[in-house]
């Protein structure tokens, strides 16, 4: 690897190196190194860091301004009007090719065998280039590829499984999309909830690839952030049918009571087991409605476009969960992004009221909040014990402490 880029050192250099390692996996056998403009004679592909190597958000194809601009035109419901305008102006500027001279931090790729671009071109039947995103360092970190034509036309999105955790999540998402593509055919079937079509799921070299339809998004598809997509959440909850049962008789609770055995740390396993047991004693006889949930429905995983809600990232989709999990996740995860303190430091005392538009009230709503936090705690505890699960360990510990120090009240004698 050549010398530092734009002074990126220590932590910044470590982050840059993680992105370069991801590129090496995608161009196996090639020489992949940090570079500056003008150093790429004979290069097979050159990628530019946006905005730079110290704060990487994207790697975009250098020398292909239309493709680079298209990689920036990815809008989610999380972006407000000012951010949408800023991103649109940046994309328009990049398309001219002039600002590319200011993108000093590059990755140069030379030589090698079949690349991910070659492989995807064969799968999709057309020439493609890729923009690359990596996300923050955590257990489910994986490269995400925005697949484009050289002229900047969106072709697909690809998730890359390069760890055991990522491969498992990709397999789960593939199964979810196979199930949902039949039951929620999207705008063509008159639905206002658009799930991406699964185009391919398979292995390439040592990587797993999940190839998905590129969902349309646009700068004009903005709606007030205070409006949660309740109708679409109801539609998803009911997609596989709704079953009403006592908590203790549900498949959800069977899976929850079995989950402490998967926690490796003895202390955490015992504490989590106690939380599960106390929750079962308090709410086991409570009748609840069970259906489907997305598993990570947040403003940044969706976009409105032409009156249709486009929803992505189906890795955590599951059937047989209590009604209201998606709405709780949507509201509480959004609130934590602007909270002054650390996540899960205090009990969300007003969360039960969030559920009223979907039906649960009283004891059912209170129990659903606890069950949601219990499900999230299970997820975090398992992810935190992965080799790169360090960033989640503090959240997992706080969430476990929160549940442990706030034992449930019994539902005996209360009207659900």
Major sheet: order of its strands? Answer: 5-6-7-10-9
Oligomer: single chain
The pLDDT mean sits at 86
Estimated helix fraction: 25-40%
The rough form would be described as: globular
Structure, explained:
This protein has 12 helices and 15 strands. Residues 1-11 have low confidence and may be disordered. A hairpin with a 7-residue loop joins strand 2 (45-50) and strand 3. It folds into 2 domains: 10-213, no CATH class; 230-405, Aminoglycoside 3'-phosphotransferase, Chain: A, domain 2 (Alpha-Beta Complex). Helix 2 packs antiparallel against helix 3 (81-95). By secondary structure, it is α+β, with helices and mostly antiparallel strands. The longest helix is centred in the last third of the chain and has 23 residues, at 362-384. Helix content is 38%, strand content 19%. The strands form 4 sheets. A 5-stranded antiparallel beta sheet has the order 5-6-7-10-9, sandwiched between helices.
Topology of this structure?
Elements: H1 10-26, E1 31-35, E2 45-50, E3 58-61, H2 65-72, H3 81-95, E4 106-110, H4 116-124, E5 129-133, E6 144-148, E7 154-161, H5 164-183, E8 193-194, E9 198-204, E10 207-213, H6 230-237, E11 243-246, H7 251-258, H8 266-283, E12 287-293, E13 302-305, E14 308-311, E15 318-322, H9 325-338, H10 351-354, H11 362-384, H12 390-405
Parallel strand pairs: 8-14
Antiparallel strand pairs: 1-4, 2-3, 2-4, 5-6, 6-7, 7-10, 9-10, 11-12, 12-15, 13-14
What is this structure, in a nutshell?
α8 packs antiparallel against α11 and α8 (266-283) crosses α12.
């Amino acid at each position: 690897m050549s010398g530092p880029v734009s002074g990126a050192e220590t932590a910044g250099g470590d982050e840059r190196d993680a992105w370069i390692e991801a590129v090496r996996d995608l161009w196996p056998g090639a020489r992949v190194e940090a570079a500056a403009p003008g150093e790429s004679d004979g290069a097979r592909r050159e990628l530019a860091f946006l905005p730079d190597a110290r704060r990487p958000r994207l790697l975009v194809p250098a020398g292909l301004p239309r493709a680079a601009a298209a990689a920036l035109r990815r809008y989610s419901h999380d972006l407000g009007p000012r951010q949408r305008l800023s991103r649109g102006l940046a994309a328009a500027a990049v398309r001219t090719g002039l600002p590319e001279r200011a993108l000093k931090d590059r990755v140069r790729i030379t030589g090698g065998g079949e690349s991910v671009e070659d492989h995807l071109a064969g799968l999709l039947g057309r020439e493609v280039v890729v923009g690359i995103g990596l996300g923050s360092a955590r257990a489910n970190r994986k490269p995400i590829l925005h697949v484009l034509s050289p002229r900047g036309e969106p072709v697909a999105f690809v998730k890359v499984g390069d760890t055991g955790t990522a491969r498992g999540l990709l397999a789960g998402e593939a199964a979810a999309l196979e199930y949902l593509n039949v039951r929620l055919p999207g705008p063509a079937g008159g639905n206002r909830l658009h799930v991406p079509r699964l185009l391919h799921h398979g292995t390439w070299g040592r990587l797993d690839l999940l190839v998905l339809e590129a969902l349309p998004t646009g700068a004009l598809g903005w709606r007030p952030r205070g409006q949660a997509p309740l109708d679409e959440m109801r539609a998803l909850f009911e997609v596989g049918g709704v079953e009403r049962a006592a908590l203790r008789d549900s498949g959800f609770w069977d899976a929850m009571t079995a989950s402490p055995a998967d926690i490796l740390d003895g202390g955490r396993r015992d504490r989590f087991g106690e939380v599960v047991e106390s929750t079962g004693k308090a709410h086991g006889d409570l009748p609840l409605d069970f259906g489907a949930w997305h598993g990570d429905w947040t403003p940044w995983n969706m976009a409105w476009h032409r009156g249709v809600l486009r929803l992505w990232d189906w890795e955590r989709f599951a059937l047989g969960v209590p009604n209201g999990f998606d709405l709780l996740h949507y509201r509480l995860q959004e609130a934590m992004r602007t909270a002054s303190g650390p996540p899960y430091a205090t009990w969300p005392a007003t969360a039960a009221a969030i559920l009223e538009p979907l039906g649960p009230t009283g004891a059912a709503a209170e129990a659903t909040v606890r069950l949601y936090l219990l499900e999230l705690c299970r997820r975090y505890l398992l992810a935190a014990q992965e080799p790169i699960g360090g960033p989640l360990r503090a959240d997992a510990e706080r969430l476990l402490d929160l549940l442990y120090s706030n034992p449930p009240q019994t539902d005996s004698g209360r009207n659900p």
